[in-house]
Amino acid sequence: MSMLTPPGMGGKYRITGNQYPRMRRPRSRRRLLFALVGTVVVVGLIGYGTLQLINVFGGGGQGKGDGATQAAAAKKQQCRASASPSGASAATSAAASPDSTALPAPGAITINVYNATSKSGLAKDTADQLAARGFKIGTFGNAPPEYDRKVTQSALLLGGTKATAALKVVSAQVTGTVTKVDAKRSGTTVDVMIGKGFKKLSAEKAAAKALKVLATAGPSPAPGAKKGC
Fold first, then answer.
1. What integer pLDDT is reported at residue 216 of this predicted model?
2. C-alpha–C-alpha distance, residues 144 and 112, integer Å
3. Pairing of strands 190-194, 155-159
4. For the segment 79-107, what is each residue's pLDDT rounded down to a tens digit?
5. What's this model's pTM, rounded to 2 decimal places?
């Protein structure tokens, strides 16, 4: 006789309520495995998508190595273009343009010689030597108060923006000079302030050699400009 038989019929226990116990089937291990694999795949896709968004919005779409390679390739292409006949003709036309001013002859340069030292007669002697080399002498004498006994170099050369080429020619006559361009000055006259470091003018052969180097040298690069090929 069953233990669940109702009382009066020999059963020991009595069933009450309107629900009956049911036996749950055990979960399949295969389902658990599929669920675990699916979770890992979803997490991986989310992480990959996040990484792609970071690369796009963070500028990481192009690596440093790729950027350097492209920059080097662009520079090579520019060098080849400048080395081509068309590039050479462009460089020649640029050299022949009015911007590339030739150095003037000494006879086209007027110089004022001032003595900023305590040695007497230095301005006149130097002016005579420069006149013998073909320069025009405007005036000579003692230096103005703002420069008197304050020039430590061999000489301080002063000129306006139009006297840039003339300053180069005069600088070849004295070693150890300092050039100062004053935008407020007009004309091409050059002032030579003889300083404490002055001993004598450069030898004529040395000055001629320096002028030849200045004449054959290319234009000075702009400040901060990088070297070419």
1. 79
2. 12
3. antiparallel
4. 666 555 444 444 444 444 444 458 999 99
5. 0.53
Cα–Cα dist 179/155, whole Å:
9
3-state secondary structure of 138: strand
The strand pair at 155-159 and 110-115 is best described as unpaired
CA–CA separation, 119 and 181 (whole Å):
26
End-to-end CA distance of the chain: 108
Distance (Å, rounded) from C-alpha 31 to C-alpha 45? 21
Confirm if 143 and 186 have CB atoms less than 8 A apart.
no
Q: What is the DSSP letter of 154?
A: S
**DSSP string of 10-32, one letter each residue:** T-S----SS----PPPPPPHHHH
By mean pLDDT, which of 6-15, 191-200, 211-220 is the weakest? 6-15
Q: What pLDDT, in 10s, does the model give residues 36-73?
A: 888 888 777 787 777 777 766 665 545 445 556 667 77
Please check whether residue 105 is in contact with residue 96, taking contact to mean a CB–CB distance below 8 angstroms: no
The phi-psi region of residue 174 (left if phi > 0; otherwise alpha if psi is between -120 and 50; otherwise beta) is beta
Let me know: does 87 contact 81? Beta carbons within 8 Å: yes
Lookup result for tokens 């005579």: 128
Mean pLDDT of the region 119-131: 95
- Which 3 state secondary structure label does DSSP give 117? coil
Length of the chain as a residue count: 229
Bridge partners (DSSP) of residue 115 are 142, 194
Q: What is the mean pLDDT of the chain?
A: 77
